[in-house]
Design brief:
The complex is a heterotrimer of chains A (about 290), B (about 325) and C (about 240). Chain A is mainly α. Chain A has one domain: ABC transporter involved in vitamin B12 uptake, BtuC (Orthogonal Bundle). Helix content of chain B is about 75%, strand content about 5%. Classes of the chains: A mainly alpha (about 290), B mainly alpha (about 325), C alpha/beta (about 240).
């Protein structure tokens, strides 16, 4: 029983971070109907940001996040404005291929500049895990979980209560109607892409103390991200959160009860099943 | 002009080993030709048919493993193994196609990616069959005589001609497909599946048959890979990067053209391999960069662009 | 025996009943007009016959053999071809290539298929524009292209969905003449149309649909005087 609870807790903690990555991707899809294959690499940039922040400036990741998030927000907006905007009219497929190219470009530039050596972040307070109720909870992961909740709650409030948030939701439901209501769809798209990138970067910074860092980590992350987002339904924030936590828990339980080796396969098998029987996911809004 | 270019290319390919003594150049040429086969294979379904698969490594890996397993465990010579590998690849593509073709657009692409990842993980874990992460290794190739002279397997030349033959065969297959009824049907499926159905085209059958052909070629290429490098492991033959590179070569070279993937392979593989010689990492930068440039400025690819210029802006 | 026989055909989309217990027949060699106010369910009937939708209930028979459950390409293979209300050519392909695609159904070899395509294009009067990209044609020409594409599958039954929509009076005349030529060449035609003058003059018989139900079935001049039909088009209070 204790193993089960430990497993579920670990799964939820990791899952919350997966969820944040998924929310970033899904929000962008909801508004612009594009699947950003470079999303995983933006997470990677956040991770390396945390690493260099610590290595060069002795900044704890949970502090340097305040720097990287706005930077990635800005970067995302610039990517939209100067790269993606011209491509989107060419259609979904072209945009998908373009972001695939962008992904390879970012990951390989990182490889070239920072080398492929695995890096880790060692935080002095992370050496021994906390043990609430006897369940081992690594400190950085707990902190990350807490921050992820805060950020996600903040995001939900933002989407629900602010004018900009409402404009984003309106555009994702019906861009033409939104435009008729005076929403500047182009500006909203730019802000949304910035937001998605910022979320990705934040997730990266928060994950950095808990994972191995290498430039092509985006590849695995984007695949997991798809599983999440498809599970939850492309375009749905609630879906991405549920999907993220679900995947985290499934992987964790799978590792313990089935086999460590096949834990990733379970996620994929689940993915295929959902794609086949409920392609719009549990809460999806996009067409299947 | 239309006849001269392909003819010149074929001649160049045939005489290359006499023009250079450099093993590096031959290795580069072999790599370019191998990627040509893969690009042509992918292009059948992706370019002509408009079904963008991000999981073609599935068939490459199946071919590679089949060839090596048959050789190491049953002693079947790898050239026969390659053919069997191709058939296995085509067979495997049938259930995969039937499942994945129920999805459209990006969902189809993601499903194919998931399939490739599942196979990679299976290869990684089914140690009894595949030796898991350790992989399979060929130490010696069977002795073969041609005109009573034994082939020197230590030299690159025999492998070069093998893969050149494969590339030529693949391109001939693509050419035949493009001119056939199936080729015309694929273009319709790519444009508008519903209208294609209304016009009497069995769209599912067209996609499944094309995938089988595409899978066959990719699997044979995988078999060659195993034979040439003499070693396969799950991360070498099933990785996402491999599937993605196939897509890039076809798109940058020219979708829905016979020579496009060849041009893409020559261009991308040469640049990135030269870069890799010098800098060791990050060579895929060029793949990313040129894909972005192509989609933005030259969506019909390099070869498509060349053809357009040459024929004076006539629609292709 | 009727060529096409529809009996008790019903189609529900969720809570909406688009077609309700519809029954009528189409005799071989006739031109049948299918009319009714907008939203009456006419295009849905076409979609049901050609296999794009599955009926909730009812039977569809072509020369006695059932069509329900067949996929669209199989229905076309049986001999039923259709055109679409909003024309759907393959825009990047040439006129000839568009029709050759359809001709491949009966002629696996490219040369024969192209020959069939040329024949169909001559029949509709597009013989001079074989190499033009389909997107470059005028609306009237694109409608004729759709018809040629349908004809190239050698149908016994041709379903035309608003072939005259958007055409000027001269073009309507030409289109009517084409429909007659097609029928005279041996193809049975069912025609959905809103251009009343044209459809009344062309049709041997007319079926009127309203809210998915048949409200009249007979010769054009009789149907036009049917009070139920008048009420459907003009509203209940006519006097």
């Amino acid at each position: 029983m204790e193993t089960f609870i430990q497993s579920v807790v670990s799964g939820v903690l990791t899952g919350s971070l997966y969820a944040m990555i998924g929310v970033g991707l899904t929000v962008v899809f909801g508004v612009m109907r594009i699947i950003n294959l470079a999303h995983g690499d933006l997470v990677m940039l956040g991770m390396y940001g945390a690493f260099w922040g610590l290595t060069l400036w002795r900044l704890d990741p949970f502090v340097s996040i305040l720097l990287w998030v706005p930077l990635l927000f800005l970067g995302g907006m610039l990517i939209y404005r100067f790269l993606l905007k011209a491509i989107i009219p060419g259609g979904e497929l072209n945009t998908l291929l373009y972001t695939a190219g962008l992904s390879l470009l970012i990951a390989n530039l990182a490889l070239f500049v920072w080398s492929g050596d695995y890096r880790t972040i060692k935080l002095p307070y992370a050496l021994s895990p906390m043990r609430p109720f006897g369940i081992a909870v690594p400190v950085p992961l707990a902190l990350a979980f807490g921050l992820a909740i805060l950020i996600t709650a903040g995001l939900s409030l933002f989407l629900a209560r602010t004018d900009l948030g409402r404009a984003i939701r309106a555009t994702s439901q019906n861009p033409e109607a939104a435009a008729l209501m005076g929403v500047n769809v182009d500006r909203i798209s730019m802000v949304t892409f910035g937001l998605g990138s910022a979320l990705a970067g934040a997730a990266g910074v928060l994950l950095a103390p808990s994972l191995y860092l290498y430039p092509t980590v985006g590849e695995i992350l984007i695949v997991k991200c798809f599983v999440i987002v498809v599970l939850g339904g492309l375009g749905s924030v609630v879906g991405a959160i549920s999907g993220g936590v679900l995947l985290g828990v499934v992987e964790s339980l799978g590792a313990v009860y089935v086999s460590v080796a096949y834990k990733d396969t379970i996620g994929f098998a689940l993915f295929m099943l959902v794609l086949l029987f409920r392609p719009s996911g549990l809460f999806g809004v996009g067409k299947s | 002009m239309r006849r001269a270019v392909p003819l010149a290319a074929v001649v160049l390919v045939l005489v290359l080993p006499w023009l250079t003594a450099s093993q590096f150049t031959l290795h580069l040429a072999i790599t370019v030709l191998l990627w040509t086969v893969l690009g042509v294979a992918w292009n059948l379904l992706g370019g002509y048919g408009g079904q963008v698969s991000f999981g073609h490594a599935t068939f490459f890996g199946v071919g590679a493993y089949t060839t090596l397993i048959l050789y190491l465990k049953l002693g079947l010579a790898p050239w026969y193994g390659m053919a069997v590998g191709g058939a296995v690849g085509a067979l495997v593509s049938l259930p995969i196609g039937l499942v994945c073709f129920r999805l459209r657009g990006p969902y189809f692409s993601l499903a194919t990616l998931a399939v490739a990842e599942i196979l990679r993980l299976v290869a990684l874990n089914w140690e009894g069959l595949t030796n898991g992460p350790v992989g399979l290794l060929i130490t010696a190739l069977p002795p073969v005589r041609i005109a009573s002279r034994p082939i020197d397997w230590e030299s690159k030349t025999p492998f070069y001609y093998m893969v050149a033959g494969l590339a030529l065969a693949a391109m001939l297959a693509a050419y035949g497909l493009a001119r056939s009824r199936l080729g015309a049907y694929l273009l319709a499926v790519r444009e508008d599946e519903d209208t294609a159905e209304a016009v009497g085209i069995d769209t599912v059958r067209a996609k499944v048959v094309t995938l089988a052909l595409s899978a066959f070629l990719a699997a044979v290429a995988g078999g060659f890979y195993g034979l040439y490098f003499r070693y396969v492991d799950p991360d070498a033959v099933f990785p996402i990067a491999l599937s993605v590179e196939m897509v890039f070569i076809a798109v940058v070279g020219g979708l829905a053209t016979v020579a496009g993937p060849a041009v893409g392979a020559v261009f991308l593989v040469t640049i990135s391999e030269l870069f890799r010689e010098r800098f060791l990492v990050g060579h895929l930068i060029f793949y990313g960069l040129f894909m972005m440039l192509a989609i933005r400025y030259l969506p019909e690819g390099i070869w498509g662009g060349v053809r357009r210029l040459v024929s004076g802006h006539a629609p292709s | 025996m009727p060529l096409l026989e529809i009996s008790g055909l019903t189609k529900d989309f969720g809570g909406l009943r688009a077609v309700s217990n519809l029954s009528f027949g189409v005799e071989p060699g006739e031109i049948l007009g299918l009319i009714g106010p907008n939203g009456a369910g006419k295009t849905t009937v076409f979609n049901l016959v050609t296999g794009f939708h599955r009926p909730t209930a009812g039977a569809i028979r072509l020369a006695g053999a059932g069509l329900v459950g067949l996929k669209p390409h199989a229905v076309t293979r049986r001999g039923v071809a259709r055109t679409f209300q909003i024309v759907k050519p393959f825009p990047k392909l040439s006129v000839l290539e568009n029709v050759t695609l359809a001709a491949f159904l009966r002629h696996p070899a490219r040369r024969d298929a192209e020959g069939e395509a040329r024949r169909a294009l001559e029949q509709v009067g597009l013989g001079a524009k074989l190499a033009a990209p389909a997107a470059d044609l005028t609306l009237a020409e694109q409608k004729r292209l759709e018809t040629a594409r349908a004809l190239a599958t050698r149908p016994t039954l041709l379903l035309l969905d608003e072939p005259m929509g958007g055409l000027n009076p001269r073009e309507v005349e030409d289109a009517s003449a084409l429909v007659r030529r097609i029928r005279d060449a041996g193809v049975t035609v069912v025609l959905v149309e809103h251009v009343m003058k044209a459809i009344m003059r062309l049709s041997d018989r007319v079926v009127v649909i309203h809210h998915g139900e048949k409200i009249a079935d007979g010769a054009p001049d009789r149907v036009v005087q049917d009070p139920g039909v008048i009420a459907a088009y003009l509203g209940k209070r006519v006097a």
